[in-house]
Amino acid sequence: MMTKKEVKDISIGIIGGTGLYDPNIFTIKDERKVYTPYGETSDKITICELNGRNIAFISRHGKGHRIPPHKINFRANIWALKELGVKKILAPSAVGSLKAKYRPSDIVIPDQYIDFTKNREYTFYDGGIVCHISQANPFCPDLQSLVSTELEKLSFKYHNKGTYTCIEGPRFSTIAESTYYRKVLNADIIGMTLVPECILAREMEICYLSISTITDYDVWSKVHVNSREIIETLKTNVTKIKKLLGNIIPKISDKQNKCECGSALRDALI
Length: 270
What we know:
With 270 residues, the protein is an alpha/beta fold. It has one domain (4-263): Nucleoside phosphorylase domain (Rossmann fold). The protein has helices at residues 4-7, 74-83, 141-154, 175-184, 194-203, 227-248; strands at residues 12-16, 27-32, 45-50, 53-59, 88-97, 107-108, 112-116, 158-159, 163-167, 189-191, 207-216. Strands 1, 2, 3, 4, 5, 6, 7, 8, 9, 10 and 11 form an eleven-stranded mixed beta sheet that branches. α2 (74-83) packs parallel to α5 (194-203). The longest helix has 22 residues, at 227-248. The chain starts with a helix and ends in a 22-residue tail after the last helix.
């Protein structure tokens, strides 16, 4: 079991998305239930270690994928990671492609998003203090640079930018919706979990990066998306993500170079 001193050294958080439920690529040291003002987290947080770095891992949908995207308690998850001392979050997730050149099994490091969610808790600041957090550039540039460099070294097919359309779910899009996101909004990928996760991380002044793995072409293509085919592609994607995380984590620095994530609240509070 970890000591209290070791818990204070946890600066890296991983939010495991669809297919990445168990942190079996790491040395598991402890499992913690963190109580939050916002209710239950998706699951207990697993404290892991890789090359001397302590990591807090939580499954976004819970073990066994029991929580649908519209029911994830994003506030509890982010609050719990912050409580453990996490300063940088890597957030793998499964997405659909809205462009032919963004192919299934490719990895996307999105740089923008468009929010089409409807009924979620988007902020920690519900009254008393008002927070207008900036989302002009919603992802940490330091983590973007590090992950892109490592993907290049691994020779994985990837895209170092892309616009992520986040929908409410849990249903998939209609053809009309998919075509709208693709042709009118010019978005590149589509998923159900980025928002408000990235917003809440910024409110907590945590560096955050989405690592999006493509499973399908959504419904604008001739072959319509279905869960069975997604699961098959996921197996390939999860293998890549595990390799990527294993290479990245020892290289993550506690320093902040290009990013201002750690001072995001400076001009946001009223």
